[in-house]
Design a protein that fits this description.
Shape of chain A: elongated
Largest sheet of chain B: 5 strands, parallel
Helix content of chain B: 40-55%
CATH architecture of the largest domain in chain A: 2-Layer Sandwich
Mean pLDDT of chain A: 80
Number of domains of chain B: 2
Strand content of chain A: 15-25%
Distance between the termini of chain A: 83 Å
Oligomer: heterodimer
Number of strands of chain B: 5
Helix content of chain A: 40-55%
Number of strands of chain A: 14
Number of helices of chain A: 10
Largest interface: A-B, 47 and 44 residues
CATH topology of the largest domain in chain A: Beta-Lactamase
Order of helices and strands of chain B: HEHEHEHEHEHHHHH
Structural class of chain B: alpha/beta
CATH class of the largest domain in chain B: Alpha Beta
Mean pLDDT of chain B: 83
Low-confidence stretches of chain B: 1-5
CATH superfamily of the largest domain in chain B: Response regulator
Strand order of the largest sheet of chain A: 4-3-7-6-5
Largest sheet of chain A: 5 strands, antiparallel
Radius of gyration of chain A: 36 Å
CATH topology of the largest domain in chain B: Rossmann fold
Number of domains of chain A: 3
Strand order of the largest sheet of chain B: 2-1-3-4-5
Low-confidence stretches of chain A: 1-32, 402-408
CATH class of the largest domain in chain A: Alpha Beta
Structural class of chain A: alpha+beta
CATH architecture of the largest domain in chain B: 3-Layer(aba) Sandwich
């Protein structure tokens, strides 16, 4: 049985020894035979039903009311707090100056927290310090000014914030590692092209000279041969570079694509600080597991989801639709957006490395996404939309057993 | 120069987004006496192939716009008469396997050697000529699952059931032993065969082991 509000000072002569030294000793009084009035009963019920912690103190910072939510929050039964100075609920950095702060307010009327509310730290019975949001109101009562504090536990919110920060840090890290890999792979690929051409030109010339009717000039053939070998050497350097950046083999394992989509959306939507975007999911039942590298496929999905959200940012209608279904031995993930579609001149180079329409980034996202898809035996295609329709990216991945090939 | 005349009738189409690679390949094959056309995109190639069918195609798989795999699908490459060589970078084996499943004739890894690719085209066209004549082993009779196989797979199956090794079958059909391997695995998967002996039994007796 708890009582609220009816607190009186215990006369000095019958006061037990206070566990907190020279504090005045109070007791919670229940007047025998006297039931609470209707409004008191109502107040008691409100206090006990409230989800937030509610605490009332008097002008000397002594606790008058400590509701049920507070008991849970702080780990003290009301009986052991009521009558004591509220600083018992505070970590040292707050408790030491609290009485002075109350005194300062009573003397000057200068409000530092009343009616403002702020984030502070509280101390649990077990010593744990935790973040709370505290709003304080003042009541002028016949017994002098009293202060009402409403306390909200910020730990759940902090956890969400922390998780978000972690996810974002992971995202940044992933993006950084990817950017390195992508750079290496893209440079290797781009250099391989002219080098292939150089080798072919030189060899074509050699072949031509060898079959000419006058016979080849041996000195010229030798020079061509040297040039050819140097081109080959450059090729092998590129090859080593490629091997280095592509060292991580796809680590294939059975994967539920829906889970990957869930995670990709979570990461992307958490990182979206712009206008809210509606996400429509459309999934065929009984989707089989895929044999893919989850990290790499995740990379594609995050990339596509981010692009889609980016595309709808400035639109009045903001949604993305993700459909997953199986057809012709392939699992198809379609990501459609309500954006403006992709301009034809952009579509041409959309999947080409180092070409981007964005102001930031290297334009490697879609290039690497497509090569990951293709290295899994799948593909990444786009229906560019336009004319009132958004773009749809279609990621296809092979279903079922992948054929293994002996490399030499 | 009878050979030259024949070659100049045979058009080699090169589909690669890189102009230098396209041109260099053209130089090599033109020197060999072939007629060569280059296409920057898969769509341009598909358009041209409608009116003038090529004798042989080189198709880069990593292209902006429609990818090489997409083009194979659009061509219905399984039943396309001309051999289509997929050009791929290294480390693209799973992609190359998919390309073979989609009907590519074979794949060639970049960077490549002029002598090597000229040789490959000679072999492919020679195999094509044999195919057009009566001089190739195929599986004549019916067996359960035959309708699931592509024409190329039926040819490969003919080689396997005749006892050819991957290497021999590859030489005969103008494709690499690795590609034979891909076809073999695919055929076994389609027919539900556990091993080569099983495969021969299914084909010859129509019994599933």
């Amino acid at each position: 049985m708890k009582c609220y509000g009816a607190v009186r000072r215990i006369p000095e002569d019958r006061a037990p020894t206070s566990p907190r030294g020279n504090d005045d000793v109070f007791e919670v009084v229940q007047v025998p035979g006297q039931s609470p009035t209707v409004s008191e009963a109502r107040l008691l019920s409100v206090l006990d039903t409230a989800v937030d912690g509610i605490v009332v103190i008097d002008d000397r910072a002594r606790v008058l009311v400590f509701n049920k939510a507070c008991e849970v929050l702080f780990g003290y039964p009301a009986a052991s707090v009521v009558g004591h100075n509220i600083s018992v609920l505070m970590p040292p950095e707050f408790s030491s100056g609290h009485d002075a702060a109350v005194g300062h307010y009573l003397k000057t009327g200068e409000k530092r927290i009343i009616g403002i509310g702020r984030e502070v730290r509280a101390r649990h019975a077990d010593g744990t310090v935790f973040p709370i949001e505290l709003s304080v109101g003042e009541a002028r009562t016949p017994e002098g000014p009293q202060f009402i504090g409403i306390i909200r536990d910020l730990r759940p919110r902090k956890q969400v914030e922390q998780r978000l920060a972690q996810l974002q840090a992971q995202l940044v890290q992933m993006a950084r590692v990817n950017a390195m890999d992508e750079m290496g792979a893209a440079i290797a690929h781009e250099l391989n092209q002219p080098l292939t051409a150089v080798m072919l030109y030189l060899q074509a010339l050699s072949r031509k000279l060898k079959t000419s009717e006058t016979g080849a000039d041996p000195a010229m053939l030798e020079i061509l041969g040297k040039a050819s070998r140097e081109a080959e050497r450059a090729g092998s350097i590129i090859q080593r570079m490629r091997n280095f950046v592509e060292k991580r083999e796809p680590e294939r394992q059975p994967v539920d694509i829906r889970k990957l989509v869930d995670e990709a959306l979570e990461v992307t939507l958490l990182g979206n600080d712009g206008a809210p975007v509606e996400v429509v999911r459309d999934e065929a039942p009984d989707l089989p597991l895929l044999d893919v590298d989850p990290v790499q496929i995740q990379q594609i999905l995050i990339n596509l989801a981010r692009n889609a959200i980016e595309a709808v940012k400035q639109r009045d209608e903001r949604w993305i639709r993700i459909a997953i279904h199986a057809a012709d031995g392939l699992l198809l993930v379609e990501i459609e957006d309500s954006g403006p579609g992709i301009a034809p001149e952009t579509v041409r180079n959309l999947f080409k490395a180092f070409s981007t329409s964005k102001r930031t980034g290297l334009g490697l996202g879609l290039a690497i996404s497509r090569s990951i898809a293709q290295n899994h035996g799948g593909d990444l295609l786009v229906e560019p939309g336009g004319g009132g329709r958004g773009a749809t990216f279609v990621l296809s991945l092979p279903l079922g057993v992948t054929t293994t090939v002996n490399t030499k | 120069m009878i050979e030259r005349v024949q070659k100049s009738d045979q058009a080699i189409y090169i589909v690669d987004d890189d102009p230098a690679v396209r041109d260099a390949l053209a130089v090599v094959f033109e020197l060999e006496g072939y007629k060569v056309s280059g296409y920057e995109t898969g769509d341009a190639f598909l358009e041209a192939a409608k009116t003038h069918p090529p004798a042989c195609v080189f198709l880069d798989v990593h292209m902006p716009g429609r990818s090489g795999l997409d083009i194979l699908k659009a061509l219905n490459a399984d039943h396309y008469p001309a051999p289509i060589f997929i050009i791929s970078g290294q480390g693209d084996i799973p992609m190359a396997v998919t390309a073979i499943k989609f009907g590519a004739f074979d794949f060639i890894e970049k960077p490549f050697d002029a002598d090597h690719i000229v040789q490959r085209v000679h072999e492919a066209l020679a195999a094509q000529a044999r195919r057009d004549g009566a001089d190739h082993k195929s599986v004549a009779h019916d067996f359960p699952g035959r309708e699931m196989l592509t024409p190329r797979e039926i040819e490969v199956l003919g080689q396997i059931t005749a006892g050819a090794s991957n290497k021999e079958a590859g030489r005969h059909l103008g494709i690499s032993p690795r590609t034979i391997e891909v076809h073999r695995a695919r055929i076994m998967e389609k027919l539900g065969a556990r091993n080569a002996a099983d495969l021969v039994r299914i084909v010859l007796t129509g019994e599933h082991g």
